[in-house]
Amino acid sequence: MSSISSTRTIRPARTLQGSLVLPGDKSISHRYAMLAGLAEGTTRLSNFSTGADPHSSLACMEALGATVVHKADKTIEITGTAGQFQQSSAPLDCGNSGSTMRMLAGLIAPHPHTFTLIGDHSLTLRPMERIRKPLSLMGAKIDLVEGHAPITIQGTPLRAIDFDTPIPSAQVKTAVLFAGLQANGTTSLTEAIRTRDHSEQALRAFGATLNRTTAASGDVTKLSIPGGQTLKAIDATIPGDISSAAFFLCAALLFPDSNLILDGVGMNPTRAALLDVITALGGKIKVLNVEEHHGELVGTVQVKVSPNGLRGMHIGGALAAQIIDELPVLAAIAPYTSDGITIRDARELRVKESDRIALVAKNLRAMGAELTEHEDGLVIPGNQKLHGAQIDSGTDHRIAMAFSIAALRATGDTEIHGAESAAISFPEFFTHLDDLCQR
């Protein structure tokens, strides 16, 4: 990603029409890259994410001894290390990617080398104690700097643990599962709120045994993974990223005659709660051609908006955890709903690439909105009119993209400062937005 800040001007639109094929899911791309680097054989991946973050994971795999080849047909071939990561000659640079840093820590902790994980300024501000605690219980030797990166790991054999996750975090879960895959004994992990299950699906795709049981109440999930397993390479096409789709789904809700078709989108049930939210807000969604690939559901989604316009809703509890990445864009369109949107139980937004609660509040106010900010969320009334403004993205990709969507129904032009940050997850975002918007 360019280190030079850029500004993008977004003009109001009349409607949103057309079809779109999204880049590969960022979460799945990370996991496939890491497991391919550990596996035996050569993994071939089509539609790998074009975002900068998963390419940080690829670069770390290369530094650990995997071979990564970018083919002319845009597939990526990763020849793994057959379970034997090598000593990296330099610190493992995770860039802006918290996913890379947290999950990689679990993957490399059992290997007999010394590793240092570093990242950009934003990443050094993000909490890492949440992975150090469970990995240390397994016997890992991990040093942080006041709870943050850089992370130093002295590789050592690990032992299995039973771990109850204190916060809903797919990244923490993954770090424990990746470590447990290589530990002595069977590691178990319990989630009170179920998080996205891409890691479980990816581990099974690469040949690992993993068991999941759910309590009779349905609200507690326990995962168990035996240690000492080996992984085998796969061939896979990565589904389109539903978190990237969120921006265009929300844009379609803003215009009564919009018609948007998204092809090959990931429909994983632990992620597709977003579609339920879009429907609750007044979106008319039709899902076509659903198939399963390596445990992941993939389908085509068509969205229009109800003739009655946008309703509001309350988002909290387990739902807030399930759609944590999509909350900024939902907040950004909240003023255009009839009843507003309330977001609570989303304190995790404060420790993402930026303090997303504070930035959403700041930028909505800049566009003329009234709202109430809470420590764990926002209350944003409906039936408001927004005007163009200067938007501070905080170099956070989801803030930059969210307010590009809010700008489509504002009065006057909006300038997105730090627009280049969209490349972290979705380099093609502004090109697609221009193609779909009719002005």
TrEMBL record:
Its main location: cytoplasm. Phosphoenolpyruvate binds at K26, G98, R126, Q171, R356, R398. GO terms for biological process: amino acid biosynthetic process; aromatic amino acid family biosynthetic process; chorismate biosynthetic process. GO terms for cellular component: cytoplasm. It is found in: Cytoplasm. Pathway: Metabolic intermediate biosynthesis; chorismate biosynthesis; chorismate from D-erythrose 4-phosphate and phosphoenolpyruvate: step 6/7. It is an enzyme of class 2 (transferase). Its EC number is 2.5.1.19. It holds the Pfam family EPSP_synthase. This is 3-phosphoshikimate 1-carboxyvinyltransferase. It comes from Tunturiibacter psychrotolerans. The gene is aroA.
